[in-house]
Amino acid sequence: MLETVWEMMAYPFLVRAVVVGIMVSLCAALLGVSLVLKRYSMIGDGLSHVGFAALAIATAMNAAPLKISIPVVLLSAFLLLRLSENSKIKGDAAIALISSGSLAVGVMVVSISTGMTVDVCNYMFGSILAMSKDDVRLSIVLSVVVLVLYVLFYSRIFAVTFDETFAKATGTKSGMYNMLIALLTAVTIVLGMRLMGALLISSLIVFPSLTSMRVFKSYISVVISSALLSVIFFFIGIVISYIYSTPAGASIVSVNIIGFLIFSAIGLMKRRIRT
Amino acid sequence: MALIDCRDVSLSYENTIVISGLSFSVNTGDYLCIVGENGSGKSTLIKALLSLKTAVKGSIAVGDGLKKNEIGYIPQQTSAQKDFPASVREVVISGCLNSRGFRPFYTKTERATASENMEKLKIREFKNQSYRELSGGQQQRVLLARALCATKKLLLLDEPVAGLDPIVTNDLYNIIKQINDEGTTIIMVSHDINSAVKYASHILHLQNKPLFFGTKADYIYSAAGKRFLGGDVDA
After folding, report:
1. To 5 degrees, how large is the angle CA B5–CA B8–CA B12?
2. I need a labelling partner for A50 at 20 to 30 A (CA). Which of A14, A202, B38, B217 fits?
3. Residue B162 falls within a domain, yes or no?
4. Total domain count for chain B?
5. CB B94 to CB A220 under 8 A?
């Protein structure tokens, strides 16, 4: 096992993928706890589809992919929240609308510009070859920003997640923190989607926090556990993908599924023992 | 000046006026019960008092040095909270947020306040337990403790005893009364008219327009009170 890991580290593209992957898993897991508890799990899915469209357009225009897709996805995160708060189209429907709509736009752009090639498959299901040196640098900077903001606003994010009305009534600007969560999620999604694939990135948000909630009871323990689990599962997944030459994104999600089943079993057993 | 002073207030819910011509005032130390049937505008009034909603007409003024963020609110439970992983301590201390400004972490004083309020509501023994594993009555006490962390001046409770059994309900009423006796003003929305009459000092009876506002003693002999109480009170 350890030898395999050393062997992997000899490939610069793998090192880049691992670095970006760990940062993204960490951010996604932290934000995921809030998103799952606020019943916003699908927001990741919606945003990743927007990201797909943005990537397709960036490629067609020969522009740097991250520099185009980050602002576009940020903007749609903003719109998504506004849409679900204010209008007659409610949250889940708004997300379904935006995600299938932008997927269609992305596919149209790709087929007109380059045709349905390997590229499209890579966008959809991810590729560990996707990371350039610039991407790694940008990913690290943005991930650190996400982490720092999360730690600074941790207790406010908790308050807004647990009880938005109370938070609002006692003077916390809950709208602002909802927006913060959505924007941080948008950044995380864009960073992770080329590695994990547009169709699979939302699993990084949903799985670790749901897995942790099977076993842990307090918010802080759920947050810490999902951050750790997310990174560990990512790493195991990428090693598996190297050994068996399976796609990285799918391997990581598979590891997450197994982890979820194990934790569910532990949770059930704990409950049995107590009663 | 009164703590809260409503003058000729009209409120709407989804573009329909649900309350009109409402005037009442709450003084420090009062225990006001807002009663009325479903859809009579009770919850809308609560939202307006919390400044989550603005009045269509009239004014709601706060006085006596009360700030808008010094209203402790105990909401009706949402379904999202029922499976929320959070320890009792985490929930209670989150009430301290409003006094915190921009500091990112809790101070010693805030921890002490949280622990004091947990002691007072006898939930300290559960402090590391998960909120979702507590009984309904215990959960309400946790929310009360959180509200007390936010303020000692005014508590606003929205149907706090909904879904609780009679013994726990009684306990909770006694705790609320005790908090009121220590000087905290209470405004409570309730379906339970008999308990309202038993504990409250003032009654506001709503039915889209105020049917009655005044002290408990007056209410029992008023037309609205007689009809609603059905004549069988022992106050």
Report:
1. 105
2. A14
3. yes
4. 2
5. no
CA distance A225 to chain B (A): 12
Write down the residue that tokens 């993204």 correspond to: A24
Mutate: best of A34, A86, A160, A166, partner B, most B CBs <10 A: A166
CB contact under 8 A, B94 and A155: yes
CB of B99 within 8 Å of a chain A CB? The answer is no
B174, B230: one domain:
yes
Residue A237: phi and psi, rounded to 5, are -60, -45
What pLDDT, in 10s, does the model give residues A95-154? 888 888 998 998 888 888 876 666 677 777 877 776 778 878 888 898 899 899 999 989
| Token pair 């009706």: residue | B76
Name the amino acid, one letter, at A225. Answer: S
Average pLDDT, chain B: 82
Q: What is the CATH number of the domain that holds B190?
A: 3.40.50.300
Could A216 and B85 be called an inter-chain contact, meaning their C-beta atoms sit closer than 8 Å? yes
Residue B111 lies in a domain: yes
Cβ neighbours of A71 (radius 10 Å): 13
User: Is B43 within a domain?
Assistant: yes
Q: Are residues B148 and B160 both part of a single domain?
A: no
- Contact between A171 and B69 using a beta-carbon 8 Å cutoff: yes
Do residue B85 and residue A169 have CB atoms under 8 angstroms apart? no
Model ipTM value: 0.82
Class of domain A2-274: mainly alpha
Does B94 contact A159 at a Cβ distance shorter than 8 Å?
Answer: yes
Q: Are residues B217 and B144 in the same domain?
A: no
Q: 């609308």: which residue's tokens?
A: A97
- For A150, the closest chain B residue by CA position comes to B104
B205 vs A: CB within 8 A: no
Q: Do A220 and B91 contact (CB within 8 A), yes or no?
A: no
